[in-house]
Amino acid sequence: MGGFQVAIVRVEHGDVFSAIRRALDLVGGLQVSDGDLLLIKPNMLNARSAFEGVTSDPRIVASLVKLARERGARVVVGDSSGSSTPLRTREVFKATGMEDAVKDAGGEVVDFDSQRPVPIEVASQPPLRVVVPSLIMEASMVINVPKLKTHVQTVYTGAIKNIAMGCIIGQTKLLVHRIGRSCKALSRLIVDIYASISKNVKLHVMDAIIGMEGNGPSAGDPVELNLILASDNALALDIAASILVGFKPEEIPSISYAMQRGLGPSSTDEVKLIGDNVPLPARKFKKPSTFKADLLAYLSSLAHPVLEWRPYIQRQQCTGCGSCADSCPASAIDLQALAIDYSKCIKCYVCHEVCPSKAIVLRRRISIPIPRLF
Fold this sequence. Notes:
This protein is an alpha/beta fold. It folds into 2 domains: 4-275, LarA, N-terminal domain (Rossmann fold, 3-Layer(aba) Sandwich), CATH 3.40.50.11440; 289-367, Alpha-Beta Plaits (2-Layer Sandwich), CATH 3.30.70. Helix content is 32%, strand content 26%. The protein contains 13 helices and 16 strands. The strands form 4 sheets. Strands 1, 2, 3, 4, 7, 8, 9, 10, 11 and 12 form a 10-stranded mixed beta sheet that branches. It has a two-stranded antiparallel ribbon with strand order 5-6. β8 and β9 form a beta hairpin. The longest helix has 15 residues, at 183-197.
């Protein structure tokens, strides 16, 4: 094991504050001073609670706010929810209890979409310009608080993705999904964006108290682990987290590409786990059904039929909130008819990701391509 350290700490008897303080001590402490502006970036995907395995635990964020306020820092907690609208982000902060927890601890809550936009050029293929909130560039320090989850399009979501996709605002998020239509393409864009906007992100504290397996990041199954992970390197943390849940890091496109790009460890041997002695894996997470489909799709494509996954709206569960239609990069959802136009659908599954009521499910369909004769 090498020089990139990742702390793993158990949360004993629900004492999140003590676990956070110990995790930070293990990775060098909280390096903020009187007058610093600290930005904390949790995962506030939608209005589902941390106990469902969807959003970051307010107790973790409140603990970080309290520790930073003790050192005299001004603390702002911000995000842009999956629906990419300021109103929905504010609703998510309220519904999950995050807003009250942050304010009680002495911090402020902001939605990124209401902040001054700053364009950033991303060295990706194709070249991309993203827009981020000014806060992420102006903060003295950014603490990333991802949630340990699976993801139907990228297999796994953790530290790198929480910054890359959670800190881009406006229509940029939809553009990224339009460009990154495959797992590999989207994962590479995520890593390239992270490399371009993360200069002030100095600490990563992962919520693994209750994670999510299966069809995450919002429609999977919650898994209680009662763990906190911390590191000063996002890639090292993602490698450790993937091993913790029984995944091979090299099978996760964002991790393998980040290693190629030199964003941290070049192999798992360079990651050193410190803190509590936790069995590896702590729990073998179920992968998303789409991950299996990718393998089957390759094999079946040799014989022409192709297995694909499509989103479907379950009418009886739909509340008509509009998150899916607001977030669809292809404008393929008719909310009044509760229907998806599959001639427009790019199968990014963002609708499935942001739906707060699990009304959108993924179903496998056999599609037989018909060759063009002219």
